[in-house]
Amino acid sequence: MYDRILIRFGDLTLKGKNQGDFIRQLYKMLDEKLQGLPITIEKKHDHAYVLLNGYDYNEVIERLNLVAGIYSYSLVKKIKRDLDILKEESLNYINELVKGPTTFKVEAKRADKTFNLTSPEVSKIISAHILKNNKLVTADLHKPKLELRIEIRSDGIYLFNSQIRGLGGYPTGIAGKGLLMLSGGIDSPVAGFLAMKQGIKIECIHFESTPLTSIESANKVVDLVKIMAKYAPGNKILLHMVPFKNIHMQLLEKVPESYNITIMRRMMYRIASKVAANNKDLVLINGESVGQVASQTLQSMATINEVTNMPVIRPLATYDKLDIIALSRKIKAFDISIKPFEDCCTVYVPKAPSTAPRAYKARHFEEAFPYEEYVDEAVKNTKSLWINTFSDLDLSMYGLEVGEAIDEYHKAKQEGNN
Ligand code: ATP
Ligand code: MG
Question: Measured between alpha carbons, how far is 346 from 342 in angstroms, rounded to an integer?
Fold first, then answer.
């Protein structure tokens, strides 16, 4: 039925060079995500067509939904510039879509003025033809359930109906690179997705406390990165695994319980800032949402944020938990996020964390151990690995501690390659 998909771009209010960059990056991502399918991409200045060449459009749409910067798309049928063919094909189009009584409207647009009928004339003729031959539909010019659009161009006539919304946003990568603090929970993968949708290329950092926590919880993080990598340039994301156990132990032994989480998070921010600087990541990104838990009150955020000069982007700051869950399901992260493995924030949950931790107290309590040395050691021992959407990496195959598991993984891979 449909022979092509029309793709409309997002925010083209961008001017000059930005617009050029936008379109270039969008096409790069489009090429990448549609790679391997027997389709052809026709690139125009401010829109594109995917010629299906007989291929299943559902499969293509699934891939288009991975490309940020696409505002909307429509299923299109291209026909000859001939009124009789137009009448017949318009009716076919409606017959195919309409399964029960509904309302419709025809909206014709004559982009090429050499066609011998005006837009209103075409609309009227086609509308009448459909009304006469399909008894399920009635006309409604104001709020039709179905709109058949007809675009008359010099190379043919294009039929299409509703516009399906794409991801929107900006092509991933166009905005520069940021470091996502990724836990195994629901929020941070959604924050990562939103950041990518806004054009940011992400790397991920995870603080792991094996063997205090299980390697399965680290593995869950790998699986979440695989999910996010579907949206990333090259289908891959760099993951920095920070050994956090030593700091964790210090916190449990030396810091008052009510300030434990606050100081733990100050350590995470310190380490993340250093790893970001080492990797030229310009911002930190995390899944914090105002008010969600004790560590996410404004007072708490201020006290935690004090330790870094880097901008911190919190895409979910004002989101409702239910909206976050809906997004988590949409990107298919939810089922992984809710797997019940403890992470460093759940293995030890203080009974009464402070909801209004003060910075001067935090500064005082964290002097209980030489934290700068611990921070530097953690940064030094951080292991970075590329996670590909299609990789079969499973850390739990390799034993208890994540660092060792990563080494084993690389070794096995090298041996396999030789
Ligand atoms: P999430 O569902 O993302 O785990 P949360 O509601 O459980 O979030 P917290 O555990 O307080 O909230 O964490 C807030 C944010 O801090 C997370 O969204 C994440 O960005 C970051 N974070 C927490 N724990 C870790 C970790 N072990 N490694 C990396 N980042 C973390
Ligand atoms: Mg968490």
Answer: 5
